[in-house]
Structures are given as structure tokens and as C-alpha cells.
Amino acid sequence: MRQQLLALHHISKTFVDGGEKRTILDDVCLEVHEGELIAIVGPSGSGKSTLLNITGIMLEPEQGQVFLNGKNMTEKKKKEWTKIRKNEIGFIFQHHQLLPYLTAEDQLSVFGKRAKKSAIDMEQMMEDLGIAGCKKRYPAQLSGGERQRVAIARAFVNDPSIILADEPTASLDETRGRQVVEMIREQIKKHKKAGIIVTHDKRVLDLVDRIYYLENGVCKEQA
Predict the structure, then answer these.
(1) Model pTM above 0.85
(2) Domains located in the chain, CATH noted
């Protein structure tokens, strides 16, 4: 039986918009097991990024609990969140957010050195993602697809338990976008991570294990 790495229990969040209180997330529950990639889809402004930020313990829910590796993150002090994010969560963003003054190799080295331990070999990761030849290049010398692959490698090299991807295909064409999700999926399976991808791209949904639809604060798994 696969281990549950991530669970959200009854997550709720509201914001004040134009003087009115708006419910963004209403009693959201979901779980992700090792080797599993799920997608969260829904219209713009439905709260997908808010849910991802709560999952990545960057934003505190008003109600509910976030569990990583069976530990309740909402019981932790906020000053502990940074260390937990560093060790347990890998982020992949819509825009790669690579540091312009570091080579591809150094982008990974910086993050890998932060880990207490790393079971992921940086050289092999770059080989797996087809960027071994890009080691000494700076972001400005890479194509859009290569930059996103470096960003993927960076998310995994710290050996986190959870991978969170926010619209990773938004700036890519159909072929490259699909390749990116295939790579994320492959590495999640290989390294037994739990992954969540927030996306508008319906063309990649056949690559995920389960799909959740979020609208009007309600998040439901699609059959």
C-alpha cells in the first residue's frame, strides 16, 4: 500500500473583496500518495493558487489542517515553516524563476546543498531531463523549455516529499508543455514523491492520476 505523503483536511479560506467577504476555499479535503500526481483545475480566480499556497505552507488556512508525512503543519509555528518548505517541498513555477547570475549546474547545487541529505543525484537528474549539456549555461543562454527543465530539476534535487507545480506549461507550446508534465510525472514516479499540478491546460490532464475541479470554493474529485 502506497504511503500517504500529503493530506488536506477541511481547508477553508476567505478574502475581503470590495468590502464583501468572499469564500475562496470551502471545506476542501484531498490526499496524495507517494508516486502520485494529481491536477487541480478550475476557472481563473477560483482559488487554485490559494490552495497551492496553503498546501506549500506559505499561507495559513482559516480552518482545517495540512499534513505532510503524517505531521500536522498547522500546529507548527510559522518560524518553522521555512525550514519545512526547504526540506519537504519542491516548487515549480509558471515562470522558471531561475537566478540569472547562476549556471544551470549552480542553480541545482545551491538548492542541493541546503538539504540535510539528498538521495537524488544531480548529475543523473540533469541527464534524465535532457539538460546535461546545459550545465555551464546561464538562463539567458537557454531555451524556454530548457529553463523549465532546470526548474524541474531544482525542485527535485533537494529530495523533498512533495512537488507543487503552478501552471508549469503556461508559457510553453503544446509539445513542450506536454513534455514538461511528462517529465514531472516520470520523476515523481521514479523518486516516489507526491505531486500536485495546478493547470488550465486540458491537453495534459491524461498524464495525471486524478483530477480535482475547484469552483465557488468547492473542490471535488472528477470521475
Answers:
(1) yes
(2) 34-59+77-221 (3.40.50.300)
